[in-house]
Amino acid sequence: MGKYVVRRLLTAIPTILVISFIIFAIVDLSPSDPTSNLPMTIPPEVRAKVREALGADDPFVVKYVKWLNQFFIAEPLNLIETSFGITFPGSEDRARVISWATRGPVIDIIAQRLPQTLWVVGSSYILGVLIAVPVGIYSAYRQYSIFDQVGTFLMMVGFSVPTFFTGLMFIIVFSVNLKWFDSVYDTTLVVSDIETLRQQLNQMIMPVTVLTLYTTAQMSRYTRASTLENLQQDFIRTARSKGLTERVVVGRHVVRNSLIPVVTLIALGIPGIFGGALITEQIFRINGIGQYLIIAIQGGDLPTVQTVTFIFAVLVVFFNIVADVLYGILDPRVTYT
Amino acid sequence: MKTKLTLLFIVVMAISSFGGVALTQDMSEVQILYWQASSILNPYLSGGTKDIDASAIVLEPLANWAPDGSLNLNLAAEIPTLENGGISEDLTSITWNLRDDIVWSDGSPFTAEDVVFTWEYCTHPEAGCVQADEFVGVVSVEAMGMHSVTVTFDAPKPNPFRPFVSHIQPILQKAQFGDCIGAEMAACSDANFAPIGTGPFIVEEFRPNDVVTYVRNPNYRDADMGKPAFDRVVFKGGGDAESAARAVLETGEADYAWNLQIAPAVLDSMEAAGNGQVVVAYGQAIETIWINSTDVSPDNPNRSVWMADGSNAHPFLSNKAIRQAMSMAIDTNVLAEQLYGRSGKATCNFINSPASNVSPNTSCDQDIAGAIALLDEAGVLDSDGDGVREYMGHPLRVQYQTSTNAVRQNTQALIKQWWGEIGIDTELRNIDAGVYFGGDPASPDTYQKFYSDVEMYTTGSSSPDMESLLSNNRCGQAPGPDNNWTGSNIIRFCNADYDAALDELSQTAGQDARAAVIIRLNDILVQEYALIPLVYRSSASSAYANSLGGVDINGWDSEMWNIEDWYRADM
Hints:
The complex is a heterodimer of chains A (337) and B (571).
Chain A: H1 2-29, H2 44-54, H3 60-84, H4 106-141, H5 146-160, H6 163-177, H7 194-231, H8 234-241, H9 246-275, H10 278-284, H11 289-298, H12 302-330
Helix pairs in contact in A: 1-12, 4-5, 4-7, 4-9, 5-7, 6-7, 6-10, 7-9, 8-9, 9-12, 10-11, 11-12
Chain B: H1 2-18, E1 29-34, H2 49-56, E2 63-65, E3 71-73, E4 93-97, H3 112-123, E5 138-143, E6 148-153, H4 174-177, H5 189-193, E7 201-207, E8 211-216, E9 232-237, H6 241-249, E10 256-257, H7 264-271, E11 276-281, E12 285-291, H8 320-328, H9 332-340, E13 344-346, H10 368-377, E14 390-391, E15 394-395, E16 397-403, H11 406-421, E17 425-431, H12 433-436, E18 454-460, H13 467-471, H14 496-505, H15 511-527, E19 531-537, E20 540-545, E21 548-549, E22 567-568
Parallel strand pairs in B: 1-9, 1-10, 16-17, 16-18
Antiparallel strand pairs in B: 2-3, 4-6, 5-6, 7-8, 8-9, 10-20, 11-20, 12-18, 12-19, 13-19, 14-15, 21-22
Helix pairs in contact in B: 6-7, 8-10, 14-15
């Protein structure tokens, strides 16, 4: 098992490098230009100068190697320096990954935005899983009951109605008409007492609900399908004929087996939390990682797009490994060699 | 059942007790929403309106443009003129006398050295300064004592009000930015994120691409007059225009929302809620049909390339009668009213502002019958009966391109129909704005390359002086392979009278005299039908709450130009 994990982690390194190269190539080859958002009154000579100062016209290889150096050498060193308060030689001249739009270090902005993304997207994910698993199991156990029919209907709605629609509906109903909740998320709010906690909950309710609806819909479908499959297995019939109580049959034999694919699915979904929820963040002005990525793409901000998507890719690779390992722990039939 | 209802009731009550949206009718704070978030507070590193406006709350120029196109003083003590000796007789230099009572927000005095430094900062060869064009032609900027500064130009400048005028080029503090010059410019993120200014507010916290909070500047020059009225400003970015409008007009969560380019009907219904109002400002932004004077056939090796000997002229658009008929067929009133609503007015002129520059000599009422008669008379007839006229064997089939945008596609559809009525067949094409305006010389789809017969986009001028806008159409400045498709003369226009009038404009001082020449230039472009102006578009449209007073939206400068005068109005 330990050997397997080490091997997977080692093979992940070349995978990640190839991914970084492919992302860089795609972003660099796309027809985006960091000066394209400037007003049309700014003449081409000035644009050329700006691109030159940014290094946007450097050859592909130069830009890529620069980024590799910034991301894999300068940023980790900087992280060590700031977290332990020590200084390495050459600290002054070290080039960090600098955004073309803000001219500030990309990593600092990601760190600044992580809290609001985790608060909103993370809590909706946890909430979604907490609701989806029991709902899915009960729906399957009482297949074709009213609960199942209503649940299936609601989940289909949650699954098929896009978040930009539900988000807008929520704003119109709860902000415009009822005036209950804020539609503009205040990222500078610091929770320090009851009143600020109330404000934080108030501004989180709508985006979290919108996202939870979507996560719940997705997860409960999987849980239901997986539970249904297990309910028809021979060993369940055996368990029942042994005279076990329904509680033990469902709780121990059905649920445990049914959750194996669901746990994998949950693990694979975790990187999505860090990626933020592009549309929901935009609608409620949460300005987390997702919104940052969108702005960077629109502005042709190559270092930012590259860094954010790459971190995302690393998380996907990592949680894939986690999912595989979990699978082995939960399912004794799977062995690693 | 009853218990369930009670439960539901309790839940609803509990949720609603969270509620009570944090209404911002707060006396001490003003909430501004920009749906594009500000990414940097240094306008020399970003030309985006969101960044210029966010920095205008802190940084000030010597003078700026007021909504009517006149000059408003900030750091200068008086407007330099020929009479007071501020502008030299030969028009090659301008001397600004600065106010001597101004201090930076950190308490240090503001002097002429800061002005000189700002010029050095932006014009450093390695800087990549976005506003470098504003300093073109400036030979030197010298401090004449503590509170006087002279800008010298390489040639007579009848309009010297460009360097240090308007919030796109405010004065930076030398003490703060002194080490950020040249290649170091981009590395100074601390300074770029929180510049020290002379304006009414100082930056409290800046979160790139998210929110800026400002607090009152205690050292502001009019602090003893109670300015600014607010203690804090929150400048929040992100989202979209529609929800920004909603936050001001319907939910009352914000006081001011910027650039509301949304359907007029939607905006009207939001305004009906009665929380606030929508205001528009006009600068110089004209939606125009540009007519290509060169041959654009796909098999032409010199496609869309202007030749000095006239050998590559367009097979039929080089005929003035055809261009005139195309212009006559269009009803600009319908376009403005139906498609632009309050954000645009019909116009017959290319230059529409300030008021003294507007030509009285043009007219453009729709006249389809007249257009048909004109074409018949010119011998441009439909000889083969396919519904499309021919000129010297060339059927009048035009390709009409523009950027992808709902209003533009609707405009295209209407114009295609009108041109169809006079026997001109139109093929419509729309291109993603990023590509169309992207300027990539390798792309065949940029507006500069102009690989179509006509195209449509808006052009404008950032200052009320129209000389640089009109100079774009000087003969010989056409985009082409020799300049990597970067020329400014998109219509490949070449007219000796026009160039002579441009020369005259560059020698003429005084607003009235200049206006006369500008009108002549406008008339040449319009009456030669080198282009067809359609709609005079508002350059700014914003919403503000009824409880906010003092807003004076400005088409010539940052909308935040007078934020020190904003106050909380009694409701």
